[in-house]
Amino acid sequence: MNLYGVKAIYKFEMARAFRTLMQSIASPVLSTALYFIVFGAAIGSRMGDIDGVSYGAFIVPGLLMMALLGQSVSNASFGIYMPKWSGTIYEIMSAPVSYFEVILGYVGAAATKTLILSVLILITARFFVEYQIQHPFWMVLFLILTAVTFSMFGFIIGLWADGFEKLQIIPLMVITPLTFLGGAFYSIHMLPGIWSKVALFNPVVYLISGFRWSFYGVADVNHYISLFTILFILVLCALVVSWMFRTGYKLRP
User: Fold this and answer.
1) What's the pLDDT score for residue 41?
2) CB-neighbour burial class of residue 226 (10 A; exposed 0-12, middle 13-18, buried 19+)
3) What contacts 215, CB < 8 A, 6 or more positions away?
4) What's the mean per-residue pLDDT of the chain?
5) What is the rounded distance in angstroms from the CA atom of residue 45 to the CA atom of residue 64?
6) Does the pLDDT value for residue 40 go beyond 70?
């Protein structure tokens, strides 16, 4: 393995994030903090408990997952799209690095930035709501797997996109609605009639449910099913990226 190549890509992407701290770190933390203030501190104090958990604490895993998904996709897609846009992607393709090493550098950097952001959001949440983490190992596992998986998904979007507007289509039109409908602010058992069954077709439900279980021991679905779901998405993304590099899809002029 060309560790120098992986390190060069990783350090370049991390340096880009630290050059744009306001956009990469401060803005997502501030946006999520506003959710904690409005829904956690203001509205949450006037609502009852959900599954024995105060509403303000109940939404912490959901809000963290919402930021996690959005930032993972955004970081990775923008990171690989910029070399395509500027034409430097051909220098990377001709360098003595394999596609696995390219993916490792870009996805690793995107996941690292997202994990840093997640830690900052958890610290910020403590100022507004009281929460606990009953299963810290599972929490870290879900956090890392989700960051890596959706960074890989964002990498796919960055390769597929041929314009800046396409970078925003999937996050805005798919990821955000699925997150809001995936139980970030409520339990799917609260949905009336058949809608609680329909919600199970939303993959984000399993991610949020497993993540919430690691905090409070309550979940909409079994946490092992949540783990299987995130691993399945990860393997699927890895297969798609492998196919894109082997066939040169969107990579060859």
Assistant:
1) 66
2) buried
3) 57, 60, 61, 131, 132, 133, 134, 135, 139
4) 86
5) 19
6) no
